[in-house]
Specification:
Distance between the termini of chain A: 34 Å
Domain Transcription regulator PadR N-terminal (chain A): 19-89
CATH class of chain A: Mainly Alpha
Oligomer: heterodimer
Number of helices of chain B: 28
Structural class of chain A: alpha+beta
Distance between the termini of chain B: 58 Å
Number of helices of chain A: 4
Protein name (chain A): PadR family transcriptional regulator
CATH superfamily of chain A: Winged helix-like DNA-binding domain superfamily/Winged helix DNA-binding domain
Order of helices and strands of chain A: HHHEEH
């Protein structure tokens, strides 16, 4: 299974873009990440990851409308590309395959 | 809700962030700022904003978007050829400016490189020895209180004892350049004035002066061996094999040549013609001694330069202490003596006590070289940025047709580089031409030998440095024009370059004013030294060492006095212009235990003091009576240093000579003005006074010299007659200073000329740009003086600012320089006023020439020009 490598953080960012669907841009992604994973992410780290993902061809972007709350500046809105989607699915398949192969004794029980 | 993000942070982001990412990042940050402000208050929001901006300092945000098309043809041969072609055409098209630029650069580079070569030569002294970092010269500090001083010569036994007892000392060499023999003969050739050096055989192994002929394991097979330099060997034996040849010294001793060493490099502090075994010296000096002193126990005679090779990493102070203990064990009463070690490479540029000597001049010259180079660069930058307006259209057209910014940048760099290489080429030629004059001025023997990598370092670094400094800014500026604005003619409104240019002109003239005031102050100080009352009369006095004539002094004197031109004859044991000898063996009533007063003793006869017109302040001169042998005459400083009240009649002891003080003379300068007058003492001992002084009336000098020469031959038939005029000896004391002064003046003049050249070009350009304006003004009734004023005003203002900046800097720098003189002028305001006025005058002269030219042009012509 050949696919380009994704770091853990990149994977989470990519997923968050998918979660947000239409409104995925820097601030929204940062907030969503914060809300969903509970970890404080810096905006610059998110930008860096978005930039890398776009270079890898997993994301595409276009500039949106200017809004007043941004001082009249436009947002860059991201969406997942075919390649991005394929990669996410691949990762998920691998994970599920691995989960399925774990015998009950293989993992110590965790009480939720 | 009115607060804004910190301005500096926004500005910073704009500067570093890649343009294609800027908008989204700005937007995101602003959005977060507003939210933070709402929830947490403005101060937190502002801090958070700044923190987030800083967190964007990452490669992805810094990296500019690369275009897909650029790199393909940026460095193609065709483009490179084109760069050169355009550059060349541009040079030819603007011949006037190219000429100004090239003259300035050539002169600046040539002079800058000449100075740096000098500096490099100074810094290279004594560094060619392999063990340079392990070799130290032993020095002793003697005396107490104000008469404390450092001698670079030591006692003889400390070398052997140190090497034997202190394990950190690996090797020791003693050198003494006494003059045991004056006349050397080989067959029918005879030479006097050889630099004979007595030394240990380790001299040839510790230093890189290995034997090229002879047995290196045994340079001196016996006490009558001699090692000579190649040049000396050639003088004696021509091309014949020198080894084994026998030369006679003063007709009594003979030496066999046992080795030959290479001639000394020019940058060696150690030099000599003849190297004789130091054991030979000891045999002569310690023969028939009744006081029981031998070279192995004599801790009295300080006349040996001692070098030690020391284990790396050993503390020199601890080592010096060990040596002091050895010394005190052998001579307990030398409690005032401490040893010091000076590293071999410091010998040339630092004084014996480690304070700055020649390094000061080196530093001064480095600064001057840099100033000259900077001035030359500023010329180029100023002219090319000023003229950039004229090329705005060219740049815009190129951009519109598709030139990338990088290409334009390269084009202008090539233009600068081309001009620079031409100038560098010319500068190297000019250097070669100037070298003989420069060597004469600087007293060096520099050669431009292009097989020497050192030269290339200096030349290469200078050219590369200046090229870098002066190419980048103009190229950046020129390639950054925005085509639309430039074509509409809106570029000239760029205030920032004008300010930048003004700063450069101010810098240039600041340097100029500093250099002018430096020249003035150095000149004044040198004049002061020359004209300061010395306290004795040195005019028309010739002096020589009498040798065998000394025994017949009275006969010679009476014969000389019969000559018409002779005004007086006297004798002493040292030259009054610089008394070399010094001793601490003194005693007087009231001397504190442990106190030492270093004093300079001079053996004289009764004529000496009146002969030199030295003023007797108290008491009387020697009379020539037998009792004079226990009489002393001190100078004022000695009386003060010894704290003797009413000195006349008091007891004094010099060496083992006990006697009374019969007189005190006014202080006189018997050394360079760089040092304070030291205590000195006259004692009556004509037989020890082997130097004759003859005062002529000034008219019949040749006749007097001839007579003296004839008398010389009568008693010293074998030896050539050599004499010095005191004026000459005196001037030699200040040779270095004189030289520094001359060089400084020359360099300052060149720097001033170069900066004027730049100003000239700048004014010419301004006048050219404003041709039509001037025409219109004239038509409307402006007068010629009015227009000159208009053009000159701006520049004069800049020069005035430069003066204000330069004065404190020059004041400080020159004050530092003057500190090196014990007797110095005080810096006065008029020196700076004069320097400022001169700079202003020079600037005005430069500016007005062009301004007048522009102002007298007939407006009909200038208005028709388009």
């Amino acid at each position: 299974m050949r696919r380009s490598y994704l770091g853990e953080f990149e994977e989470v960012v990519l997923l968050t873009v998918a979660v947000l669907a239409e409104g995925a841009y820097g601030v929204a992604i940062t907030d969503e990440l914060d809300r969903q994973t509970g970890r404080a992410v810096s905006i610059s780290a998110v930008h860096a990851a978005l930039h890398r993902l776009e270079e890898k061809g997993m994301l595409k972007s276009h500039l949106g409308e200017a809004t007043a709350e941004r001082g009249g500046r436009r947002k860059r809105l991201f969406s997942v590309t075919m390649l991005g989607s394929r990669t996410l699915h691949d990762i998920r398949a691998v994970r599920e395959q691995l989960w399925g192969s774990i015998s009950p004794q293989g993992l110590p029980a965790v009480s939720l | 809700m009115k607060t804004k993000p910190p301005r500096w942070a926004s500005r910073l982001l704009e500067i570093f962030c890649a343009p294609h990412l800027l908008e989204e990042i700005q937007g995101d940050l602003y959005e977060r700022f507003l939210r933070n402000e709402r929830f947490w208050g403005s101060s937190f929001a502002r801090r958070q904003y700044a923190r987030e901006v800083l967190s964007f300092l990452k490669p992805f945000a810094l990296k500019r978007q690369t275009s897909d098309y650029q790199s393909t043809y940026l460095l193609q041969p065709a483009m490179i050829r084109n760069y050169f072609k355009t550059a060349w055409r541009n040079l030819l098209k603007n011949q006037f400016y190219s000429l100004i630029n090239m003259t300035g650069l050539t002169a600046g580079l040539a002079v800058g490189m000449l100075i740096l070569l000098w500096v490099q030569d100074e810094l290279s002294f004594d560094r060619f020895h392999q063990k340079v970092n392990q070799i130290y010269r032993l020095e002793n500090e003697v005396g107490t209180g104000t008469s404390k001083q450092i001698w670079t010569t030591t006692v003889a036994p400390i070398a052997e004892m140190g090497k034997k007892e202190v394990p950190e000392i690996k090797e020791a060499v003693r050198i003494t350049d006494g003059s045991l023999y004056t006349l050397y003969k080989y067959q029918d050739k005879s030479f006097s004035d050889e630099e004979e050096v007595f030394t240990d055989p380790t001299f040839f192994t510790l230093f890189d002066f290995g034997l090229i002929k002879g047995n290196p394991a045994q340079p001196f097979p016996d006490n009558n061996s001699v090692v000579m330099t190649e040049k000396t060997a050639k003088r004696y034996f021509g091309d014949a094999e020198p080894i084994g040849k026998v030369i006679t010294a003063d007709g009594k001793t003979s030496f066999t040549v046992s080795g030959v060493i290479r001639d000394f490099p020019k940058n060696s502090s150690l030099k000599g013609d003849f190297f004789l075994p130091i054991s030979h010296w000891f045999n002569v000096i310690y023969a028939n001694r009744k006081d029981g002193r031998t070279p192995h126990n004599d801790f009295h005679e300080f006349s040996y330069v001692t070098f030690f090779q020391i284990q790396p990493g050993v503390s020199t102070t601890a080592l010096a202490d060990k040596l002091r203990n050895i010394h005190l064990r052998n001579k307990p009463d030398d409690t005032d003596l401490t040893y010091l070690l000076q590293a071999l490479p410091d010998m040339h540029l630092y004084k014996a006590d480690g304070t700055e000597g020649g390094i000061e001049t080196v530093r001064m010259f480095v600064i001057i070289a840099l100033l000259i180079l900077v001035i030359a660069c500023i010329n180029y930058v100023n002219l090319s940025t000023a003229r950039s307006m004229l090329r705005a259209k060219e740049v815009s057209m190129r951009k519109i047709v598709g030139a990338a910014k990088m290409q334009l940048f390269l084009q202008f760099i090539v233009e600068t580089a081309l001009l620079f290489s031409l100038s560098a080429f010319l500068a190297i030629g000019l250097m070669t031409l100037l070298m003989p004059f420069y060597n004469e001025l600087s007293g060096k023997q520099l050669v431009i030998d292009f097989s020497d990598s050192q030269i290339w370092t200096v030349v290469g670094a200078t050219i590369a440095g200046t090229l870098l400094a002066s190419s980048i800014y103009p190229a950046l500026l020129l390639s950054s024009f925005e085509p639309l604005k430039a074509l509409k003619g809106k570029v000239s409104a760029r205030l920032t370059d004008a300010v930048f240019r003004k700063i450069l002109v101010v810098t240039q003239f600041t340097f100029t004013v500093i250099l002018i005031s430096g020249t003035l102050i150095i000149g004044n100080q040198l004049d002061y030294i020359h004209s300061k009352e010395l306290g004795y009369d040195k005019d028309h006095v010739l002096s020589f060492y009498m040798r065998d004539m000394g025994a017949h002094f009275d006969a010679v004197k009476s014969e000389l006095l019969q000559q018409p031109g002779v005004a007086g004859v006297t004798r002493a044991n040292s030259n009054i212009v610089s008394i070399g000898m010094q001793t601490g063996a003194t005693n007087w009533d009231g001397k504190q235990p442990g106190e030492t007063m270093m004093i300079r003793p001079v053996a004289v006869n009764q004529d000496f003091i009146p002969f030199f017109k030295i003023k007797v302040d108290q008491g009387a001169n020697f009379t020539g009576a037998v009792s004079d042998s226990v009489h002393f005459i001190l100078n004022e400083t000695a009386v003060r240093a010894a704290r003797i009240k009413n000195p006349v009649g008091k007891r004094f002891k010099l060496w083992d000579r006990e006697g009374t003080i019969i007189g005190v003379v006014k202080d006189f300068h018997f050394a360079s003005m760089k040092s304070r007058i030291e205590p000195s003492i006259f004692f009556y001992d004509p037989n020890r006074a082997g130097r004759m002084f003859i005062k002529t009336t000034g008219q019949d000098a040749p006749n007097v010299i001839a007579t003296a020469g004839r008398l010389w031959k009568q008693y010293n038939a074998e030896y050539p007659f050599k004499y010095d005029f005191l004026d000459q000896t005196f001037d030699d004391l200040y040779k270095t200073e004189q030289r520094t002064g001359t060089l400084f003046t020359v360099f300052a003049t060149i720097a001033i000329v170069i900066s004027c050249l730049g100003l000239f070009g700048l004014v010419a350009y301004t006048a050219q740009v404003r041709t039509r304006e001037i025409g219109v003004r004239k038509v409307l009734g402006a007068t010629v003086p009015g227009i000159i004023q208009l053009l000159a005003k701006d520049f004069v203002k800049l020069v005035l600012i430069a003066i204000v900046i330069a004065v404190p800097v020059a004041w400080y720098a020159m004050d530092q320089w003057l500190q090196g003189f014990a007797y110095r002028i005080s810096i006065e305001w008029w020196m700076f006023a004069l320097a400022g006025l001169l700079a202003l005058a020079i600037a005005l002269l430069t500016v007005s020439f062009q301004s007048i030219k522009a102002a007298v042009v007939n407006p009909v012509k200038s208005l028709r020009s388009e």
